[in-house]
Amino acid sequence: MTLRVTNTLTGEKEVFEPRDEDEVLLYYCGLTTSDPAHMGHARSWLHVDAMHRWLEHRGYDVRHVENFTDVNEKIVARVGEAGADEAAVAERYIAALIEDMRSLNLKRAAVYPRVSEHIEEIIAMVERLVEAGYAYEADGSVYFDVTQFEDYGALSNQTLDELEAQGDPAERSEKRNPADFALWKAGGVAPDAIAEHRHGEAAPPEAAADRALTWDSPWGEGRPGWHIECSAMSTTHLDDTIDIHVGGRDLVFPHHENEIAQSEAATGRTFARYWLHTALVEVETDEETEKMSSSLGNFETVSGLVRERGPNVARMWALSAAYNTEAVFSTAALDEAEERWERLERGYEAAVDACDSPAAGATVADEPLREAVADARADFGAAMDDDFNTREALTALLDLVGAVNRHVAEEPYDYRGLRRAIEALETLAGEALGFELGDAGGGGDVRLAEDLVDVVLAAREDARDRGDYERADRLRDDLAALGVEVQDTDEGPEFRLP
RNA sequence: GCCAUGGUGGCAGAGUCCGGCCGAACGCGGCGGCCUGCAGAGCCGCAUAUCGCCGGUUCAAAUCCGGCCCAUGGCUCCA
Fold it and tell me: A450 is in which domain, residue-wise?
């Protein structure tokens, strides 16, 4: 009945109580637009999507904001290779990211704000921090003074002493404390900052640096610091206090820690009530496992995977483990996800087919089936309410699939029970988890393909009737090579398009 | 070094917050059977788990407490 979520701030599962009983403000720390999205990003996206969907299913109006960080050294490093200047490079990657999100069937956020469009708000927030004594200017840059913020380190569970010990005293001598972080950075981008992110064909650092964006500010020409953007955009598009802030676990420190410090120092309010962190994706190399990351170059892109396996397999892979446990990306893991997805999809189709068949008797009531539907709904809800446990939720759905398959094995059919099963799968698997079930609503191309397969299968039936199994099997193999799966049943051959 | 997370069957992965229904779910893979021209799908059944190690609390522990070992992530590029 009550939704509970693991809050990084406390490290505990807490009852979720939004500020407003029917609205949830959710901010997702989006991507830096300097690389294509990989499956690590996709897994995070997919889990946030499941959260978004479940919150809506529970009746909340979800105001979801996801930013694009389009001002960053890594983007500048792409100048010449992916665009003529920082803005052009960012634009190109943003278009690709949006395409990826669409292909994954993600619920749209209300807005996708960009750093470059919020410089005013960022400067205003920095000014407020300086005025309030939380930040200081040094050489045209502005730094946040961590000693002024009492709770600094609360999210990552570190004390200021520990953090100071970690800082590199050699760098940034104008900082008062090694743990202080930049809110505003003087000047443009230094070529050496670009050099380390340079890719093959990128422009030489000096040339790229010239094409970096800079803005006027009370402290002179410069660029926003890394963390301030999210604070500015979250408060601008949502509110000073939001309900849920989600992001990858790799952002806990320093990014989220700093967001809290600067936001709360600026507004005097709690920045986010619940901090949820998605675990990272790992890749197995010859020697060890390491996280999938753009900078390590060990990634599989979203577009590539969607092309090869489809969005539902990607989703099944992502949701087959809880959002806060790490996942391994491998061919074997994808194969398993594909099998799981197909079992779910086939179960749904079996229910639909049975319901449409003459064997769906009007008076039969199959108690086990009806009970299974009720159990599935209850178990699914309990699982999602328990910290968005998508794995358990999927278990409930696959249990229902088993019940459907058992019921469908023998006629007559309980059409009302089947209807309930279909509705449960559509609302739970479809709406709440975002799978695209029975998306047969294809256009003319799909219908033509179906008609063509029917023609081939008719020829195959002829061959089978003649006992020419060699030819029949060859036709089936040829269809299989095209991704068309053929199955012989009592009612004749059935097929599924790829 | 500091912080965090995790160690459950061949694989993957729930359960650990709130001890007993867990001799441990769902799925993948393996084996056998039903069905079938064959295959696939589906159904039924079987085999693999002293739940990282040691100790403690308890009538009862995968679940609580203490210690240890190991793995991964973070420690100012990162979802």
Answer: 444-496
Q: Which residues of A256-280 are buried (b: 16+ CB within 10 A; e: fewer)?
A: bbbbbbbbbbbbeeebbbbbbbbbb
| A394: its two tokens | 């999927």
pLDDT at A283: 85
What is the reported pLDDT for A445?
65
How many Å from the CA of A334 to C1' of B12?
A: 11
Q: Which residues of A99-120 are buried (b: 16+ CB within 10 A; e: fewer)?
A: ebbebbbbeebeebbbbbebbe
Is A231 marked within a binding site?
no
Whether the CB of A455 is less than 7 Å away from nucleic strand B comes out as no
CA A7 to chain centre: 19
Residue A441's pLDDT is 45
Distance A352 CA to B58 C1' (A): 52
d(CA A441, CA A495): 16
In a domain, A279, yes or no: yes
If you measure CA to C1', which residue is closest to nucleotide B75?
A166
pLDDT of residue A465: 85
Strand B contact at CB of residue A147, distance < 7 A = no
How long is the CA A313 to C1' B78 vector, in angstroms?
25
pLDDT digits (tens, 9 = 90+) for A264-303: 999 999 999 999 999 999 887 665 677 888 877 788 899 9
Q: ipTM value of the model?
A: 0.94
Residues 95-134 of A with CB under 7 A from strand B: none
Domain count, chain A: 3
Q: Which residues of chain A have pLDDT under 70?
A: 1, 166-173, 200-201, 285-288, 439-447
Give me the A residues in range 262-281 that sit within 7 A (CB) of strand B: 278-281
Q: Are residues A421 and A480 in the same domain?
A: no
Structural domain ending residue among the three candidates A251, A284, A317: A284
**Could you tell me which residues are beta bridge partners of residue A137?**
A142
Please write the tens of the pLDDT for every residue from A141-154. Answer: 999 999 999 889 88
Q: Is the CB of A301 under 7 A from strand B?
A: no
Q: What is the pTM of this model?
A: 0.92
Check the annotation: does A29 bind a ligand: yes
A248 touches strand B (CB under 7 A): yes
